[in-house]
Amino acid sequence: MRSELHYDAVVIGAGTAGLTAGARLAEGGARVCVLAKGVGSTHLAPGTIDVLGYAPDRVSEPGTALREFAAAHPDHPYALAGLDAVTEAATWLKSAVEAGPLPGYRYVGDLERNVLLPSAIGALRPSALVPETMAGGNAVASERVCVVGPRALRDFHPSLCAANLSRAGIEARAVEVEIEVDRADENALGLARRFDDPAWRAGFAARLSIMLQSDERVGLPALLGVRDPHGAWSDLEHRLGRRVFEIPTLPPSVPGMRLFEILRSALRRGGGRLVMGAEVVSVERTSQRLTAVSTHAGGRDVRYAAPWFVLAAGGFSSGAIELDSHWATHDRVLGLPLRGVPAPGQPRFVADYQAEQPMARVGVAVDGELRAEGAENVLVVGAGLPGAMPWREASGEGIALATASRAAELVLARAGGAPAGAAA
Amino acid sequence: MTVIDDLLRGSLDHCVKCTICETQCPVSNVTPLFPGPKYAGPQAERYRVGDEPSVEWSVDYCSGCGICSQSCPQGVKIAEINAQARNKIKRQKGVPLRDRIITRPTWLGRAGGGPVAPLANLTIDLKPLRIIGEKLLKVHRNAPAPEFARQRFSRWFKGHRSPPTGRKIIYFHGCGTEYYEPWEGQKVVQILEHNGFEVVVPKQDCCGLPLQSSGLFDDARKVVLRLARNLAPYVRDDPDTIIVGNATSCTLMLKREAREILALEDDPDLKLVSERTYDICELLLELHDRGELKTDFKPVNERIAYHAPCQQQGHYIGKPALELFALIPGLDVVEMNARCCGIAGTYGLKAEKYDIAMAVGADLFAQVRDSGADTVACDSETCRWQITHGTGRTSAHPIDFLHRSYGL
Amino acid sequence: MATLSTDVLVIGGGATGAGVAWDAALRGFDVVLADRADLAEGTSGRFHGLVHSGGRYAVKDPKAAEECVGENRVLRRIAADCIEDTGGFFVTTPWDDPAYADKFAQGCAATGVDCEEIDPASALREEPRLNPEVSRVFRVPDASIDVWKAVWAMARGAQERGARVLPYHTAVAIHRDGDRVTGARLRAARNGEEVDVEARVTVNAAGAWAGGVADLAGIEGVRILPGRGIMIAMNHRLVNTCVNRCQMPTDGDIIVPIRTVCVIGTTDEHTDDPDDHTVFESEVNAMLDDGEKLVPGFRQARALRVWTGVRPLFEDAKASDTETRDVTRAHALLDHAERDGVQGFVTITGGKLTTFRLMAEDTVDAVGRHLGEQRPCTTRTEPLPGSEQQETYRLGERLERKEQHLTDAQLICECEMVTRGKLEDAIRRRATTNLDDIRRLLRLGMGPCQGGFCIYRATGILHGLDGLTAEQANGSLNHFLHERWKGMWPILYGDQLRQVRLDEWIFQGVLGVEHLPS
Description:
The structure holds three protein chains of three kinds. Chain A is an alpha/beta fold. Helix content of chain A is 30%, strand content 22%. Chain A contains twelve helices and 22 strands. In chain A, helix 1 (16-27) runs parallel beside helix 10 (254-269) and helix 4 (83-98) packs across helix 12 (396-414). Chain C is 35% helix and 23% strand. Classes of the chains: A alpha/beta, B alpha/beta, C alpha+beta. Chains in contact: A-B, A-C, B-C. The interface between A and C is large, with 54 and 54 residues.
């Protein structure tokens, strides 16, 4: 007996792109299964939705800048997804957050204008949509900033953050607060759990308030609660009588984990399945189509067949795309052709750390509708797409959301005639 | 060292220190005594030299739930590396008597089950005896302890005649069903028969999981191989005959953990058994996908909470129970979003780990209480006992609800 | 301008120079030790870490083999804390001339290398990743050494006896008074300040750069033939024993387990510029293929970084310009009084890490002749600071220490288990803002993530401790990132590429370091 299951669409990857694609397909009525080797990029990312931050100069109006940017970069994922998809995806995300499992938590901002938020080292990062818990850090606000760091947290250094903010023209100082911890290696998640507890929060606020000066807003590392961040944040603002904002820092990212829960719950609400630990280990296909993928499940493989596949497994960082020790580049998930790989004999990387690296734009080759070259029923979304440099552009989440939404739209528009498993 | 050890250790090369496993680990998130999977696994492994004495203790606080390996996006076999390190500590520092006893459900079951059950159960219920047990054996006085059943499952099955449909299926009931919850096995048999299977129950013992998770690898190998020798002949000759079990931890042991953690990759009997073993909900979902599952489900108008235990998640098949519940009219299922109940097989029984296990379970217990459900569905018996212990709510295997809905 | 006065000025702070400073200080001389960069940043810090048993030279260079036999025993005694008793194997792989094994055994017997032939099956039990095709295996007492630890231990020991240690001080002039060298002018790399050192004897221990230092002294013809080799560090120890190919020494024939990693080395190419660290893809490919021969699957394992080192081979009549391996590995001590009629100046070069102590002893003997004071050498028996217990280093030490302080010792560099206490202590002790200096002391940022997680932490701590400005702190961080990148980009594939992408994500995506206000 062969283990197999049939779906309308199988999504591979559970980062922002995969969960969004899965949720949107499920909402559209498709029977969808998301296969994930492990937890994805959300837990490492700041939790902001960066749409376009640099092109290459800093962008202040991403919506406007995108038009020019997409025109100038016709192979860029934004050009493929289309600008409507970006706008629509941003709107969808906001509503998904509000319908999500975190009461009161929401994202603010839009494509009209980027918000400039301090990073943990005190640089300013441009984002389009940000959790309400971070919005108070906007560099355009005039209040002075007091960067507050729990001394126990090795992953946040308030004095360095404040010193760099001051150099950027934002009047800032730093204070350290003692927090009782039971271990020296506590991370942001461990501290964030404490902020879910109102009594603990009250004690923290009392200790902090005496250290603050008037007309200062308070920047804390991003650890204001896991289960109830809205409650934690608004309570702290209330108790301190001033604006409080979170500053994203080293992984693990608490706001990223919140985003994961929001997207996961959107997928589940729509009836979509999520299978963790499910690495795709083999692929079945005809000359033009993918018919099934298999994952290891104990002693045997489970075969997942579908008329549509969405590849959201990421790029080099997740290992979905690999450069091997013989300098050959592969799509390790589906074995699809890549684009953007430097020709043999050409440099793959260059000695200057800050220069653009020739390998940076590698991705799975697609056509104008995100369809993988050589597999017409595979749509590629997110970091596995070629042509972008998400970190340099500050565009990662925007690309993930927009391409995932577009892919879901394309599948739903065409799926009418193809019943589940027909291609198998 | 064998090749498989090398594969486990070699997987540490995939670690990019990303911290995702730390966010998922139920144990390190509640106690500083376990510094977390990244530290104990790929990080500490670089400092371990095969035959040099172990210099650690903290990895013994890993409960072996396996969530880290499951959530690692880079494919590091974290839990498996930890299991090896734990085994090394046990080899060098010795195994407490307690671990030798509680890891032997077959001995316990034979001693306390069947006709002597009422007497044995009395000792379980008597607080003074539990306190003595804690002092002597370091088994926590409050740890959840199931009651022995008066009649073992296998005795019941002897008096049962499965209709000879010719479509044979091998039922692996495990120790929990055999000694404590024979009714679960009866329901499994009835559901399988309802769907046209002829159920065969071979002679069987423990799968060795409790021994393995306590780091007693040599004993665990003997036990699981004996089981594999018993089961393999039943499936060897017919590629369509499969083994199904309702004890999700034990089926996982047969499917994957014995081969990977105990380095038994090359044993042909175990390999065959591993390829043919199904978790009951996994099987039913696949039958449904093929249109072969009877769907004469009658309404069950009830709200239940569902917790997918770690070991069930370790099958890497998602949560098939949820898909099956969706077939039952009227059943209102609240999916728990907590990682672990804390018990992790025998971990939560141990006196020094009981409090940690209860702290691990606290999140789940709170979600259960908030769910408004009176009953919790969960695929693993030890987890059910822990959930009931932590919440006072009754708990049942997912097949209970299918059984009811079929009206069997 | 500041001036210093001393008995002995040592130019070059590698193992040899630090050894000279330690030896001279033990003999009661006043010492100044200077290096253009950090101590052991040149050749000494850029090798694989092998303490030779002598086996490698047993056939080809019996004199070198005998020196290694003696010094190996001495180092285990005096530098125990820096040395791991890994043991070594010489293995005959299918690619090696089977006739060499017998010659090897004979050579070892003749030179006193403690060598025992063992059954390949038992070698495989000890080292299961070893190529199962090996036909013969010899066990020898190879070991590995943490050179940075040893060099700093010697520098510290010398300091405790009054020596002054001046890293980042380049010799810009050598002072001469007629036919006598009287000292040197040093320029501090950090602030450009100069200092004149008056010395009764100046020792040129600049290794591959010794020709340039001799030129400054107006001495001609000190020609060093730099032999350049690449080494690759793998993410974890694929072997716990030093594994050598049993053949005439060639490229890529040793894997050395050193601290948490193992290093494969090396190549040998003539170079004109000892500061040229270019790594060629062809060299990397060849080295990975060589790794496969010793440890099948080597190419699937994770390579952390690659670097080059230059051997300071002193040219003699036998040398050709292209084949450096045939030049003698024995060291060259040039007493310029005898050679050039110049008093107060001695050059020590050539040699190998294993024999640095012997080189230092010979050198200080020569220094004594210049000073007219022959004092006995004690480095053969005097343990280096930190090695008094004569307990050799074990890999598990840092894990054991962390386990003992599980909840109260904060790990800053998790990969290499560097605690906050150790980091703060090192920053204070070195009074440096250069995190690369700290790296060499503590192995900060040398593990799998190559600083991805610890360098922001370390920069924050540095900024908080030293009252540094934000510009300086940012500069420290950027400098470290650039230094790490140098060793990674030529060998970026597989798992390390994933790591680099995550690190980029942290520095660019999360922290935005490239957008820090300038």
